[in-house]
């Protein structure tokens, strides 16, 4: 079986990628399986820029094909925030619950129809011997009035999917993997890169 390195320490992402890549005949390893203590400063102004930085840094360590994911939430009423700062929206310690509480506070007086949001995922694939590829996947929804559900990670409990009448955290992992920004990005990568899959 082919092995891919996923340049992330986020176990929520790792679980989703494990399933998404298993369907395609790959097994994955993440930064949590690699001994080195690697920290990457995500200082680019775009998801794509940060994803490339993560993937290219790790290719230097492993010599394997590396996939990196930089993702986040864009809220229309907040002019696209938290955007690339999603992970640290409520502070440097990266706390999902604090991020969700801050988001709900910011939208306290915003009506249902003005709570449009989208998840964005930039996937970068870096190779030891050719140029990095990047694709973007999105998933449209709204910010709920209160958190619901306990699957998934991050902003899933406050991300409401109108046609499912559920938050992302109320979906099973299989259901999320059919519609998520991450799944959509991977589908694009597969379409553009048939020979590699
Ligand atoms: O499917 C998702 N469901 C809910 N929330 C999500 C999702 N996808 C990204 N998010 C949120 C979590 C975090 O607040 C930020 C990602 O930040 P991001 O820097 O890409 O990831 P991270 O720092 O957790 O791990 P790493 O950089 O090691 O991959 O967007
Ligand atoms: Mg990060």
TrEMBL record:
Pfam families linked: Ham1p_like
Cited Gene3D superfamilies: 3.90.950.10
InterPro entries: dITP/XTP_pyrophosphatase, ITPase-like_fam, RdgB/HAM1
Residues involved in substrate binding: 8-13, 71, 153-156, 176, 181-182
Reported cofactor(s): Mg(2+)
Broad class of enzyme this protein falls into: hydrolase
One GO cellular component term noted in the UniProt record for this chain: cytosol
Catalytic function, reaction form: dITP + H2O = dIMP + diphosphate + H(+); XTP + H2O = XMP + diphosphate + H(+); ITP + H2O = IMP + diphosphate + H(+)
Residues binding Mg(2+): 70
Keyword Metal-binding recorded: yes
Example GO biological process: nucleotide metabolic process
Active site per the UniProt annotation: 70 (proton acceptor)
Annotated CDD domains: HAM1
Gene Ontology MF term list: dITP diphosphatase activity; ITP diphosphatase activity; metal ion binding; nucleotide binding; ribonucleoside triphosphate phosphatase activity; XTP diphosphatase activity
Lyase found in the keyword field: no
Cofactor binding, note field: Binds 1 Mg(2+) ion per subunit.
Keyword vocabulary terms for this entry: Hydrolase, Magnesium, Metal-binding, Nucleotide metabolism, Nucleotide-binding
The protein's Enzyme Commission number: 3.6.1.66
PANTHER family: INOSINE TRIPHOSPHATE PYROPHOSPHATASE (PTHR11067:SF9), INOSINE TRIPHOSPHATE PYROPHOSPHATASE/HAM1 PROTEIN (PTHR11067)
Family: Belongs to the HAM1 NTPase family.
Subunit architecture: Homodimer.
Protein's job: Pyrophosphatase that catalyzes the hydrolysis of nucleoside triphosphates to their monophosphate derivatives, with a high preference for the non-canonical purine nucleotides XTP (xanthosine triphosphate), dITP (deoxyinosine triphosphate) and ITP. Seems to function as a house-cleaning enzyme that removes non-canonical purine nucleotides from the nucleotide pool, thus preventing their incorporation into DNA/RNA and avoiding chromosomal lesions.
Protein known as: dITP/XTP pyrophosphatase
